[in-house]
Amino acid sequence: MEYNVKSLKAEEFIHDGEIRETVRYAEEHKHDIQLIDRILEKAKERKGLSHREASVLLACDLPDKIKEIYDLAEQIKKDFYGNRIVLFAPLYLSNYCVNGCLYCPYHLKNKHIPRKKLTQEEVAREVIALQDMGHKRLAIESGEDPVNNPIEYILECIKTIYSIKHKNGAIRRVNVNIAATTVENYRKLKDAGIGTYILFQETYNKKNYEILHPTGPKHNYDYHTEAMDRAMEGGIDDVGIGVLFGLDNYQYEFAGLLMHAEHLEAVHGVGPHTISVPRVKHADDIDPNEFDNSLSDEMFCKIAACIRIAVPYTGMIISTRETAEVREKIIRLGVSQISGGSRTSVGGYCEEERPHDTEQFDVSDNRTLDEVVNWLMRIGYIPSFCTACYREGRTGDRFMSLCKSGQIQNCCHPNALMTLKEFLLDYASEDTRKIGEEMIQQEIDNIPKEKVREIVRERLQKIEQGDRDFRF
Ligand code: SAM
């Protein structure tokens, strides 16, 4: 079996030999200054790097070069994503699961976790609670259970979510994180109007994958790894990939992740829309120390910087698995989306206190959405509730060409300001509103086109008068 980026077989496009050779090559060249400089020069063209080149940067431990890597990541992030950070929240629908994943508390053998699945009335209540916080974008999460959570259940929930219009609230984009499924089911999700289909690989190392997923449908590595190809065949062109850092060694995962992105680009003409970088956390029945590949905060940040440089057009997501401190560092190096005010339990948003019994993992950032918005602005970022792209048909390669043409600043920037304005008027505390209004006034001047600036001023006034949902 040979490495073949265009193959549709998991073990050929995520080729174990190629990954091992890449990690070896990176280790051998980690002090090769000439090579590192050549790679950094190439990266400055902002067209990305191969998995081998990016792996050399990740392995390099020369302080001067690490600084250059960080500076470049920061600059690329600014060029492509400006100072905007998109906000979202996870919504847990059901923790029924037939899989045996060793790191996840929802595993079938966990008998002391209460099992819960939201009814449509409960979904509506959760959505109202999320809308009352100010959220416009959700990622729905569910265990895998063909009897309790069949695709029809997921589709019904999506319909309910989109149908709730509470006060000025609305969920305008539903991303979906459910187990690998068939082309037919992906087509149904596409028809239901989902944003991104997200599926974490967990680990790219097949041997370890099979040990970590000893039972259930998820045990099938090939079926799981080829899921994004089926999703794209089913018409979903925004897909989100990721690994659960801590399960295997990070050098292996990093190369695998980039090879997956290269594969999607080579076969479908468009790479992943987002990359998530979750780290394994403590949860009921789960001790992260059992996984001896845990990652230091420092290396975690370096991985984010190297991803930013390697795939400049791919959004990067970080969740409330991370503390405020780590989030601040990593946002600067390339993250474009974060969750805020998250509850990782089934039905958690309707509870006064954060419930633990059905939680998927411990949340490290426990601030409210208003506090996260306030904090982002204080450290210089525009919190964005924008959901315009897929609603305007800018998915897949159409989104990528918006990025590549540099028009993002005339489009995403105004959308961020207008959706922030909605948040300030409808949901923010007094202090947040004050900082936000000042930020909007300053940031209007950073819209390059005069005509767009004028339209934005008019629309901001209309939002003030009660209109909602303007977008470019
Ligand atoms: N059940 C679906 C599947 O198997 O792909 C997806 C939904 S699952 C609720 C979302 C993700 O949570 C998983 O893909 C896994 O990476 C992550 N996860 C599971 N256990 C975790 C833990 N202990 N700490 C951090 N993340 C965890």
Task: Describe it.
With 472 residues, this protein is α/β, with parallel strands linked by helices. It is built from 20 helices and 9 strands. The chain has helices at 10-13, 16-28, 33-44, 51-59, 63-81, 120-133, 151-163, 183-191, 206-212, 221-225, 227-233, 250-268, 297-310, 324-333, 369-378, 388-391, 396-405, 412-426, 430-444, 450-464; strands at residues 84-94, 137-142, 173-177, 197-198, 239-242, 274-276, 315-318, 337-339, 382-384. Strands 1, 2, 3, 4, 5, 6, 7, 8 and 9 form a 9-stranded parallel sheet that branches. Helix 2 (16-28) packs across helix 4, helix 4 (51-59) runs antiparallel to helix 12 and helix 18 (412-426) packs parallel to helix 20. The chain is globular, with a radius of gyration of 21 Å. It starts with 9 loop residues before the first helix and ends in an 8-residue tail after the last helix. The mean pLDDT is 96. The structure holds S-adenosylmethionine (SAM). The site of S-adenosylmethionine (SAM) has 21 residues, from loops.
What form results from the Cα inertia axes?
Answer: globular
Radius of gyration: 21 Å
The total count of helices amounts to 20
Q: What low-confidence regions span 5 or more consecutive residues with pLDDT below 50?
A: none
> SSE order, as H and E?
HHHHHEHEHEHEHHHEHEHEHEHEHHHHH
Name the structural class.
alpha/beta
Determine the N-to-C terminus distance. Answer: 47 Å
Task: Please describe the biggest sheet, giving its number of strands, its sense, and whether it closes into a barrel.
Answer: 9 strands, parallel
Ligand kinds: S-adenosylmethionine
Helical content (DSSP H or I, runs of 4+): 40-55%
Strand content: 5-15%
Overall strand count: 9
What number is the mean pLDDT? 96
